[in-house]
Design brief:
The protein is mostly helical. The protein has a domain of 137 residues. 70% of the residues lie in helices and 0% in strands. The chain contains 13 helices and no strands. The longest helix has 38 residues. The radius of gyration is 23 Å and the shape is globular.
Length: 315
Amino acid sequence: MPLAPLDWSLWLSPWVLGIFGLCIGSFLNVVIHRIPRMLERQWLHESAAQLTDAEAMARVIGVAPSETEKLAKAVDAYGTRIEALPRFNIVTPRSRCPHCGHQLRWHENLPLVGWLLLGGKCSACKAPISTRYPIIEVLTGLAFAGLSWRLGAQPTTLLWCGFVAALIALAMIDVDTQFLPDDITLPLLWAGLLAAAMGWTIPLEKAVIGAAGGYVSLWTVYWVYRLIRNREGMGYGDFKLLAALGAWLGSSMLLPVILLSSVVGAVVGTFLILFRGHKWEIHIPFGPYLVGGGLVALYVGPASLLELLGLLSLG
């Protein structure tokens, strides 16, 4: 007897995807917290490996090999300590309280429910648990439910869920560290091109032009700003993020995304300067604003967004 086809209208309904989004949001909290620390450990280990090369140090710095050998020996001790650190990745160790080290039990780790049951406090030391954790979970749940409502209950909706999840992680990591990790931006870029090549999202031509145009446009802005102001105005991660947005949303969405993100960035930046005491010289990450512009383009839709921008320009 042949198996009955899956009822996508049930399994990919807004309610089901919303609950699924809560779970993914819980995982994103781990990603946001751990990936920067994983990268820091990797960078320190790689730097230690480079600094222990006495010949390279002497060749680059131009000092006597005896002095660089002393430095290499000292750095090697730090490299050994880094290698001896306990295993740390996305799944190891298990989640625990950052204040007292209490390992969270399974029911304390339940998305949103665990935080509510604990009253927003650690069950062991009663230290407060940041409200950011349930906010990200709820935000991801609502985003997934919105995709089901916007795109319909179809398998390709899951692709867009992955796209949105990656954007949320990138935005929060950039807020925390002012860094957009290649570990997320580059796979997101290639996933967008692959999805287009498979016919799951947008035409491949638009995806390729969008990716190339996204990268080159901000790369150009970066160098023009640097030549005029003699300092950097954004990081290379912003180029890669806009390239990924172009690969998923298409070339026609690049200008609207940049306009929307620039407007939001200007408003938020001005607010921080006027009411939070930030100085003009302090760098404000642009990644979250690019993410915001990309999400608006996705949920409003290309046709509606272009029509809206056209009406605004005419008015």
